[in-house]
Each structure stands twice: as structure tokens, then as C-alpha cells.
Amino acid sequence: FIFNQNKWQNPCNPICRRAANRTSSIFFRVWSACSMDSSEPGQSDMPRSETASAGMKRKLDVEKFTRGSKISAKGVTDKKARTLIKKQEKKFRDAAMRAAKAEVLKTEDYGYLEADENERTVRFSQKQLHEHVDENTRQKMFSLNLPELGPYKMKYTRNGRHALLGGLMGHLAAFDWHQSELSFELQLRETLRDVTWLHDHTMLATAQRKHVYIYDSSGIEIHCLRNHIEVNKLDFLPYHFLLVSIGNAGVIKFQDTSTGDLVAEHKTKLGRCSVMRQNPHNAVMLTGHNNGVVNMWSPSMSTPLVRMLTHKGALTSLAIDNTGNYLVTSGVDKQMTIWDVRTFKPMHSYILKRPATDVDISQRGLLSVGFGTHVEVWKDALQTKVKEPYMSHHFSDGTHVSGIRFCPFEDVLGVGHSKGVDSIVIPGSGEANFDAMEANPFETNKQRREVEIRSLLEKLKPEMIGLNDFIATADRAPAEVIAEERRLAKEANSARKPIKEKKHMRGRDKSSKRAAKKQEEHFKASQKKAKKLEREAAAAKQLKSTEDTNQETVLDRFRRGG
Fold first, then answer.
1. How far is 300 from 380, CA to CA, in rounded Å?
2. What whole-number distance in Å separates Cα of residue 287 and Cα of residue 254?
3. Nearest CA to 157 among 192, 211, 116, 202?
4. Could you tell me if 28 and 4 are in contact, meaning their C-beta atoms sit under 8 angstroms apart?
5. How far is CA 427 from CA 31, 133, 298, 391, 424, in A?
6. Could you report the per-residue pLDDT of 191-200, keeping only the tens digit for each?
7. What predicted TM-score, i.e. pTM, was given to this entire model?
8. 417, 150 in Cβ contact below 8 A?
9. Are 141 and 134 in contact (CB under 8 A)?
10. Chain segment 103-120, per-residue pLDDT in tens
11. Residues near 203 by Cβ (< 8 Å), separated by ≥ 6?
12. Nearest-angstrom CA–CA distance, 93 and 326
């Protein structure tokens, strides 16, 4: 079989060339700006200066990064405006050139497994990969034997540098798995249902027996959230600084970790819930319930944004990709269904041997599912229905999988099971090129502090969470439609009656004048009310006197002429 290793160095390096020559059954496919030649490394047919000049003359794809056509300043008569336009155009041109040059620096390619004609990648085991990969990749393949405090769950930070372990029996540990440095290790001596990182590796949250607790990077308890009771699932929204929880009470709660306020809490009215994940595209929370329904929640609405019936029985897990277009659900009916979130319709489904305990989607779209003692990884399984998995891993001695998570920016899958934690290599799962302003696996302490401050300053409001991604989107309607909408809006605004502006005279708006005027109006109103009561009393008295005069007595019949 052929193993294409990502993050491999330039083949012109003599060390890399010797490593490639030593490998007989495995070939490393690499990307290089220079062409491969039959001559020895460091030697070339053309001189060094000619090679450099040829590289400089290579055309860059600058048009790819330009923003529209160039604005000409020829028809502008104002000298200041013409100079300003030229400066802006030069700034845009330089930015496009820098972006094109930076694209050349992305020399990392995505690795993947390729099988020969008579081979299948699903048959390749981790033991075979361990024998043929380089030393750095071997260090990423490890197994922690912890049979007494499981089953375990494993979570990674956003940059993939730190890992967090949580055992059901109360074992909690955090470590930098790139450097193999343990941050802390605790025995909580109570049930630990779920763990999650907060904005970075300096803070984490745990769902313990009764409440939710927050710890720092050294394992010291910082806070206890007593409003979150008997929580089963935790998740964190990094752009909103919201800690989301749901548990046995069936109430989803949003807690702002920057201010400490409880932003919202909504009752699902569907009983106990232990399945919850976030949509990384729009920060909408998805919850799976025992009746097979998936609800999508936002802090600004007390009712679900969308309610989908996905399975006939209870849901066991769900996951959604980074684009927010594909949703994967699994239930006790042994089915794993792929849904199109844009239409809320099922695309295809897979039949598993056992109900899935957990599913996850990598940055490159690989789908992993854990059930029983097996972990399967599917390639291109979201858009189309494939016949067999891309890779498979089996645990012996009755080890049951409890949780799986892909590591960001690494071809690694973390598997938590009943007897500890395993880290296995899945070629092609991680993103090879990272954005240092977004998530930097090699950031220093100073950079981490700066990122934390910038994230707090740019924190989004909870009201901005919704299905429609209205941030930085363009109106794609035709120009005629936009012009017609503007014309109708202008006509509607002009049809309104003009508001007559109040004429303010000097000295009339003083506070003393307003108080005296208010007191005068109150006195006039009380006088008017008193006069009205007097008139009503006089009318009632007159009516009573007339009734007394018209009333007949017994002696009226003896009157003359009566």
C-alpha cells in the first residue's frame, strides 16, 4: 500500500531523499515548488542565480485575490480625491500581492492512504502504520491503560495542542500531548459525566455528580455553577464565550463565562437528554432526545428553531461538519443517517452492527463512528454513499468505545474506552495549513494572552446566534430587483405625513419653566374636575326636589275639583 504523509519536508533535502530511498513498500507523495531531477541533491544544471531568477519570474495568481475591477482616477478633477484613490488602489494591489505570495508558502499537502489493486485500506492496521511512519508520527500513536476508572472521554483544544481526559469514576487529567507534559491529574471521588475545554487550555469545565465545576490549568477549582444541576453534556461556544449544558431535567442553559451571567435557559419538555453538539458554522445547539427528535436551539428563543424527526427510537449521538451543511445522527435502531441541513431532508443511511456510542467529523470531512469494540472511519461518506469504511480499528478483551474525537490540525483520532484512552493515526483527517490568527498550535504564552484579549473584545452577542448566517454576506439578488425594492421603500417613506417640528423659543425649555407649567396644568385639571362634580351634585339635588313636588299624598283626593 501507499502512505502519503502530510507535513513532509522538501525532497531536495538529502535526509528526506535518503529516507525515501530506504522505504521500499511505502512511498511518500510530497509537494515541491521545484521539479524533481535525477541529479544529486544540492546540484543543478543551471547556476544558482539563474534558478533564483527563474523562480522570481514565475507568475503569481494575483487576480484570485483582487476585489473587483480597478478604479481609475483619470476623470477626477479634485487633486486630493485623485491622490486618495491612487493610494487606496496601491494598498489593495499590495494586499493582493502579499496574499498570492503567502499562498506559495502553503507547502503542506493532505495525506491519505492508497491501496494497490488487490488491497483495501480498511485492512491496514495501526501496527502496520507504526512500522512504516516516521518517528514524529509514532509519538502520536499511544495507548493509556486505565482499566479501573473508565469509561473515558477525550477532548482537544481548538488548536489541537492540549488534551483533556475524563473518567466516569472521577479521574480528571490534562496534558500537552505534543510535548508529553502533564498539566495536572485529579481524583474527584465522584461521578464525572462530561468534560470540555473553555476558550483555551487555561480553563476547563466538568459535569460532576450534582453541579458543574470550573478548574484552571493547574487543577485548582475556580467556581461552582450551582444553577446547572445533574448535567450530562457540556459544550462551549468560543466566539460567544457561552458554556452550554443539558442534563436529566431536560433544560438547556447558556452561561456567559466572561461575565458570569446566566444568559438563557429553555425547557425542552422531552425529559432526560444526554446528546448535544454545536453547529460550528452558526453556533446553533443541537440536542437529541429519546423520541428520535433533534432540536436546534438559540439563546434568544424559548422554542426550538427547527424540530426534526430523525429516528424511530432514541438517539445515541450526533455530529455536524464545519460547513454546517451535513448532519450525522445515530440511534438505537443501529442506523447512521446523513442529513442535509439546508433542506432538512435525509440523504442516505448506513446500517451498523451495533448502536453507535459516538460519532465525529474531522476538518477534512472524514466520518468516524464508534460502536461496541470497533471504530470505523469513512471517507467521502457525507456527499455520497460509500460501500466500505476507509479505515477500521478493533479493540480486544471486551474494550467498549465510549467517546471519539478528531484532533484539529493533526491526522489523529482520540478514542476513549472502558479501559483507558488510545490515540490512533488517520491519514488525511486533519487540516494541514492553519491560520495562526484563528488557532495556532505553536503559540507562545504572550500570543495566547493577546488572542484571549482580542477574543473578549470581539465577542459576539448571544442574540446573533441563528440559522441564517447574516454576517458578511452579500445580497445576491439582481440589480433590477434591488433597485425596485429601494424604489418601493422610498415611496412608502414619502407617503407618510411629515412631522411638524416643534418651535422652541429661548427660555421655554428650562427645567423650572417645565415644572411650573406642569403644576399649572395639574391645578387646571383638578379645578375642572371639581366644577364637574359640583354640576353633577346640583343636577341630582334639583332632580330630587322635582320628584318630591310631583309625588301625590292621601289628602290630594279631597281637593276641590279633584
1. 35
2. 14
3. 202
4. yes
5. 16, 11, 35, 9, 10
6. 999 999 999 9
7. 0.69
8. yes
9. no
10. 766 666 677 888 888 889
11. 197, 214, 215, 216, 217, 222, 257
12. 37
**Residues 36 and 11 sit within 8 Å (Cβ to Cβ):** yes
Give me the chain's average pLDDT, please. Answer: 83
Query: How far is the C-alpha of 335 from the C-alpha of 338, rounded, in Å?
Result: 10
Give the 3-state DSSP-derived string for 86-137, with helices as H, strands as E and coil as C: HHHHHHHHHHHHHHHHHHHCCCCCCCEEECCCCCCHHHCCHHHHHHHCCHHH
Site of grid cell 417613506:
493
Q: Which helix (H) or strand (E) holds 308?
A: strand 306-309
**Tens digit of each residue's pLDDT (9 = 90 or more) over 82-100:** 888 888 888 888 888 888 8
- Going from the C-alpha of 281 to that of each of 34, 58, 238, 342, the distances in angstroms are 37, 37, 12, 12
Please give the Cα distance from 359 to 316 (Å, whole number). 9
Single-letter amino acid, residue 317: S
Name every residue whose Cβ is closer than 8 Å to that of residue 275 and which is 6 or more positions away in sequence: 233, 287, 288, 289, 315, 316, 317, 318
Separation CA 417–CA 370 (nearest Å):
10
C-alpha–C-alpha distance, residues 301 and 291, integer Å: 22
